[in-house]
Amino acid sequence: MKVMKFGGTSVGSVNSILSVKQIVEAVEEPVIVVVSALGGITDKLINTSQMAANGDSAYEKEYREIVNRHIEMVYTVIPAGNERTVLLDKVNELLSELKDIFQGIYLIKDLSSKTSATIVSYGERLSSIIVASLIKGAVWYDSRNFIKTEKKHAKHILDSELTTRLVKETFQELPEVALVPGFISTDKNSGEVTNLGRGGSDYTASVIAAALNADSLEIWTDVDGFMTADPRVISTAYTINELSYVEAMELCNFGAKVVYPPTIYPVCHKNIPILIKNTFNPQGEGTIIKQEVNSGSKAIKGISSINDTSLITVTGLGMVGVIGVNFRIFKALAQNGISVFMVSQASSENSTSIGVRNQDAALACEVLNEEFSKEIEMGEISPVVAEMNLATIAIVGENMKHTPGIAGKLFGTLGRNGISVIACAQGASETNISFVVESKSLRKSLNVIHDSFFLSEYQVLNLFICGTGTVGGSLIEQIRCQQQKLMQERGLKLKVVGIADGHHALFTRAGVDLSQYKEELAEKGMPSSTQVLHDEIIGMNIFNSVFVDCTASAEVASLYKDFLMNNISVVAANKIAASSEYSVYSELKQIARRRGVKFLFETNVGAGLPIINTINDLINSGDKILKIEAVLSGTLNYIFNKISADIPFSKTIKMAQEERYSEPDPRIDLSGKDVIRKLVILAREAGYKLEQEDVEKHLFVPNDFFAGSLEEFWKKVPSLDADFESRRQKLEDENKRWRFVAKLENGKGSVSLQEVDSKHPFYGLEGSNNIILLTTERYKEYPMMIQGYGAGASVTAAGVFADIMSIANI
After folding, report:
1. Annotated catalytic residue: which of 277, 444, 678, 743?
2. CA distances from 262 to 206, 245, 700 (A)
3. Cα separation, 666 vs 660, whole angstroms
4. pTM of the model
5. N or C: which end of the chain has fewer CB within 10 A?
6. Is residue 678 flagged as an active site residue?
7. Considering only CA atoms, which of 35, 64, 227 is closest in space to residue 140?
8. Cβ–Cβ under 8 Å, residues 627 and 744
9. What is the pLDDT of residues 593-650, one digit of tens each?
């Protein structure tokens, strides 16, 4: 024999109720079917009764909708004939009783708890007689005759012993299908109608299953079973195949609404398995809850949460060493019917924090302030107040007790994402770690935990890309080409959740389709500005987020501080922030370190060459940088490699611009400003406090060429060609070449155009390549040399991509 319970959504529509008929009639053993009210009817009954009590005549319209809903269901699912006529008589009789009750409430404008309980009972009474008529061979039983309660602390509590005896008597002989209304009960002394609370139909089914030693209890609902997390928040959540009774209870207590929490204990006591199934997907495996389960390889089974949390803290030095304080706290709350779902106490005993529902917070503070009024008056205990707008999250799994470091990983992950934990609790059984955060951090917390504990199929990195020009466009294309491979081979999902250019900005949690991002940006994007970037990115409050700056904008660079402060990592191809005032650079580095996020800018020097990372590795391993000599401008190296008798100086500058090696305004390169920025960045990473104005400059283009407009520059620059050609011929005769060299020695920096002979390491540098020589305490006699492409969109984008990957810890 089995017990099957069908919830409100399972009997809420014609299609679903016919599915219930098909599911039940396919069972080849005696079955007791427990049903809830039609979906939404319980709420409608409560609202209608409150309208009547307030003297609002519109309650009649609400009542007519209740009538129409049930009459329409009967006419739709029960064929015409005598059976329908008999059923309609029963339904109309109950609806007529309900009408009289509503009218009485409207006339006297009073609604007692006794009357309210009677009214909501009609939902299950109506639905159960309809389903009983629909299912072949079903016999209807009135649960008010055998589900009995008693009043304790102003609440109606199940009388288990009496109920068990009456259930056994009622079902001594089982029909093929027994149909029972869930939720409703009666007081064992007065006989008045009571109920088992919202979700009580689950409890009704469990109590019957336990009393009759059923083979199984099936809960049929509108989901496939327990999920690893709320799928409305986490799209990658999936169904959990098996849970132990303890795991299921913990998840239910902390907000997983699949099963009403009291449901589990009666069947657990009898070791009766619970199977959660989906009425709308009967072929699905569902979730089975039982005593012994396969623990699997994952440390946790699921995440659950309670959004409406208030934290009440009783604190004061007068609590230290005093026996019985907690007894008084929980006694006072229990006497007033206030349920506590989480407790956190300091080991010094000077504070105890308790988690309650928001609706209970005011009363809890009131009774506790009354209980400790004398201590508060004497200053031994502080007045009790509630901290509102909080959420409680629990990670659950019996396998946690066998896995060291779970709590460390949990709180470390939350911290890196800027989520503050207000209170936490963990039992000695180690099946549940609960903690309280601000409500606004709930979505982010759930996502980052789900991702970091590998409940998600992939680790997710959420990217905001600013700039879609040569570098940004190449980066987006590289990510698009690699996305599938990274998911399959590395379990990493790079999701671009924001893209912005100089005109439009697009933000979407679902991720941008990179194959047509330009069209989406133009069609769906909002007007772009630094303020929009700031507000939207921080406002999304998304987990594992990275801001990628592929611009050369000072305004965009000014956003880094706020992003890092909000635990958003920053990857910058933009050199401005790292080369600006030392105080700005230092502050950004410190914020990133303090907040546990990354501020990476490898491509600021040498495009995709691993220069900054190499310097960091040397410093971190105890080495010291003594001298840096480098050719750091791919643009200038290209120019001085191209210049010849046939190609004058002015033309090489134009060629560099056309090949996109130079900045849009090549004067930035020619002025040495770009090289100075790079040298300053390297010096700082090497441990030297250097500003741009500290760098000694020996330039090769007169200062007056940098004044005026770019157009004027292009007109004037050919005047330099003759002088450069004369000097070039002399250089060629001496078998030398020009290199624009950046140098750091003894903490001092300089840039200059130098002549190098064929024996010098810089002589053979081709095209737009960069080269760097690092002289350190370890590499003193033979400096370390790094050489390769130092400019170009694709290699720079690849360097940015590498920084992104390092954040993912791949």
Report:
1. 678
2. 9, 12, 83
3. 10
4. 0.72
5. C
6. yes
7. 35
8. yes
9. 999 899 999 999 998 899 999 999 999 999 999 999 999 998 898 999 999 999 999 9
